[in-house]
Batch of 2 targets.
Target 1
Amino acid sequence: MVRRVHGGRAISEGAGVRIRRTVGLPDLDVLDPFLLFDEFRSDDAADYLAGFPDHPHRGFETVTYMLQGRMEHLDSVGNRGNLGPGWVQWMTAGRGIIHSEMPQQERGLMWGFQIWVNLPAAQKMTAPRYQDVPPEQIPEVAIEGAQVKVLAGSFGGVEGPVSGVSTSPLFLDVSMDAGASCEVSIPRGHTALCYVVTGALSPSLGHLPVERGQLVIFGDGDRLALAAGEAACRCIVLAGAPLGEPVARHGPFVMNTREELVQAFEDFRSGRFVEGG
Ligand code: CO
């Protein structure tokens, strides 16, 4: 059931923000439809203060999930969002936005995730769309020693607030007490991942524990059997329908062909991202 455990790497992104990346590296470029999986977590302001000043995106979706701290999001057409602890922002960049993501604090813990989800060819040039969801709108399901926040998709008969996404994503924040377990249904054929946020996870019966900061990639199946060990465990479960299309990516642009990438750079340089909204 577990296909691979991936350790990830500490790198620097934006204007010098220290992050831990597991998907979006040369040895794990794409896990269709997921293009990037980053965790930022630091209580040293020097690691995050510089933030992510103005930068473009085209052809995919960026998902920001905050656990601690506050990040302000501002874009080229005047959309503004202040993401605090527990907020999720699902942004469909579509044909293009220019935005900044800047910390709203000068000290304390900044902790969260950024995930990139690909768009099918038919939707890469769609109008940008934002789904900003406060924590009180994220349902939580409790089952015998496990608490599951449902951000997207469904779990335990409960639907998450993020909707209308073409890859039918499942996005869960799972907290298990020591010794507890949790079973998650996944549609067959969907790509399924689990990132260990705290503690250690047994991702299937008899599998060795997977440590914090590691990503578990599952093989095809219809359910995940997650379990905490001797300590409590928190993990992010992510699944989605693969697109099976060619990926041409460079920096903040993810298209299907090299020509479309060149066009994206030209449109960005000539200011068409701002006009287009
Ligand atoms: Co961005």
Note: Residues 2-240 form a domain with the Jelly Rolls fold (CATH 2.60.120.10).
Target 2
Amino acid sequence: MFENIIVEKDGPIGVIRLNRPRVLNALNRQLMKEVSIALDDMEKDEGIKVVILTGNEKAFAAGADVSEFKDPKGPDMLFNYRFFEWERVATFLKPLVASVAGYALGGGFELAMMCDMIVAADNAVFGQPEIKLGIIPGAGGTQRLTRLIEKHRAMEYILTGKFMDVWKAYRMGVVNRVVPVENYLEETKRFVKDLISGPPIALAVAKDTVNKAYELNLREGLDYERKMFYFLFSTQDKDEGISAFLEKRRPDFKGR
Ligand code: CO8
């Protein structure tokens, strides 16, 4: 069904593997469509609790497919490249973790930053090299990287296109964990284990509410959080979580 990605299910963990190895997983439009369809399927599948987005040992993704940028002019991009598939990644409701080995450049880095967390192999390299092509990041890089590492550092990477090695990325809070490249996917699966038995509705609300911290001012964000807090009191999972605590047993969340 898919030509540019491989989709696997390992029990409650969904894995979407970007799979254009000959071009370092360059993200063409068809690949992004396939990612968006795979995410639709995994969002509906009640058995899937968490999704890992990954590539291969050499590249998570070396950016948007530059060969698709040769002919279009501004209006062509405006009317034909609306980023719906990219937005789909950022609006996915379940926990979504990027497992990055090798290059995560340009759109590849932007894709990883759309995920909720990043586990990186010790050979990972991040960067926004678009400036070298005479353009700028177009899928959120100028905004998300600036919020992640602050203005002056983001300027350094976005204005020069220089690469950021994995330990620098770790020190700046871009990645959550650095793991050996030899078993980076297994380590990522271990990392997401804690999310599997969590309450699905509260997890969706939690990631939405954290993301709102990027979009709202503090007062609006606090109001939003409070409303979401009240909302969760209408779920069976809240009854189950509180009862389980009081009865000193493990909760069995149903996502209801
Ligand atoms: N697009 C298309 N093909 C690519 C890309 C890419 N982004 N990256 C690598 N490739 C291809 C190469 O052309 C090469 O193909 P071939 O074997 O046919 O010549 C193959 O992958 C292997 O690449 P290299 O031979 O270059 O491998 P090296 O190990 O020598 O170098 C690098 C690896 C440093 C990663 C190098 O390939 C490179 O610089 N790649 C381009 C990185 C880049 O500029 N990325 C940004 C692209 S623009 C972007 O992402 C904008 C995002 C905006 C949002 C998206 C909306 C459309």
Note: The CA atoms of residues 125 and 236 lie 43 Å apart.
